[in-house]
Design brief:
By secondary structure, the protein is α+β, with helices and mostly antiparallel strands. The chain is built from eight helices and 19 strands.
Length: 353
């Protein structure tokens, strides 16, 4: 049965060897709907893994509640919670074959052999691993082992599935493949999932909702598109992809729609905040939203890199470095270091921080 996760006022304080206190998680509140895939994303030490471990039961809360479905599980041991964890290092038994690794948790529950066999075969079919049942972990690639680890978690039919950076040990190409596989399987099963990563592309490609964290505090919760297009602050803007922060001032505002002055040019922009005319503001403009050869501003190229599917520039404008990403550069003018170019900003993509 699908179950949601509700985290209320979660706080975790660690005491160091020098008897000082470190607040790893600071009053976190989060609602995850049944069947949603939610990713905790942030730099190392931001508290995301600590939150996952508290949901799993491997860390105790200093304050707060964790509800899985309607049950407060904060005081329960891991085996009493309706969760399963997919580990970073797979955590497979090296002496057991794939079938026995997957069946291990069911055997601990002392289920009938016929039910164990039925559930394991069902998961093997789902994972497209029917021909791997007799292999041991040493006979499989990292990606195959991670699929077994996922199968072992799913076969327990938990209400909530937890992922602790499961793709970090794989090479770049395999990570993309496994990311797609995890999302496909999660949608087929419909299980509520909480995923931890520091990889922005994983979070964007997998999630219904992304939770951006810094210093134990949630900075923003939203869909990948909301987080990317309308970041709540400069930290979020810079952590998800690349970003230009442009200064300007408010000309007028009508709801979310604003007119802003950048240098001597007036642009349209969006914001979920309220401003006064003439108020100084900062705006986010993504590199792909900087328009080359729009004669609004003149800039000087300081970096020019051909990246295949796009061309990357850094230009100096008004003493500021502006990042530009020009897609499909074939047949377009390529500017070199020292060249002057005209630039402007795509009005549909300017967001006020």
């Amino acid at each position: 049965m699908k179950k949601g996760i509700t985290i209320k006022n979660m706080t975790k304080i660690f005491v160091t060897n020098k008897n000082t206190q470190v607040k790893a998680v600071d009053n976190v509140n989060l609602d995850i709907k049944p069947g949603d895939f939610v990713t905790l994303l942030g730099p190392s030490g931001c508290g995301k893994t600590t939150i996952l471990r508290m949901v799993a039961g491997f860390e105790t809360l200093t304050e707060g509640e964790i509800l899985i479905g309607k049950e407060n599980v904060a005081s329960l041991t891991p085996d009493k919670r309706d969760t399963a964890l997919v580990f970073q290092n797979y955590a497979l038994f090296p002496h057991m074959n794939v079938y026995d690794n997957i069946a291990y948790g069911l055997k601990l529950q002392k289920l009938p052999k016929s039910e164990i066999d039925q559930r394991v075969q069902k998961i093997l079919n789902l994972m497209k691993m029917e021909n791997f049942a007799d292999r041991v972990p040493s006979q499989m690639s990292g990606g195959q082992q991670q699929r077994v680890s996922l199968a072992r978690a799913l076969v327990m039919e938990p209400g909530v599935l937890l992922f602790d950076e499961p793709l970090s040990n794989l090479d770049a190409k395999l990570r993309i493949h496994m990311r797609d596989e995890i999302r496909k399987i999660q949608r087929e099963v419909g299980i509520t999932s909480l995923y931890v990563t520091h990889d922005q592309s994983e979070a964007m490609g997998l999630s219904d909702k992304v939770v951006i964290m810094k210093d134990g505090i949630i900075q923003q919760v939203g869909s990948p598109r909301e987080i990317y297009q309308k970041p709540a602050n400069a930290f979020v803007a810079g952590f998800i992809g690349k970003a230009n922060v442009i200064k300007g001032e408010i000309q007028n505002q009508n709801g979310e729609n604003c007119q802003v002055k950048i240098d001597n040019k007036v642009y349209k922009a969006t914001s979920d905040k309220t401003f006064e005319k003439g108020q100084k503001i900062e705006m986010i403009v993504r590199p792909e939203s900087v328009v080359i050869e729009r004669e609004d501003f003149k800039a000087t190229v300081t970096k020019s890199m051909f990246m295949g599917e796009y061309h990357e520039y850094e230009v100096e404008w008004k003493g500021q470095t502006i990042l530009i990403s020009q897609s499909n550069p074939f047949g377009k003018t390529i500017y070199g270091v020292g060249d002057e170019m005209f630039i402007g900003f795509d009005e549909t993509s300017i967001h006020i921080l």
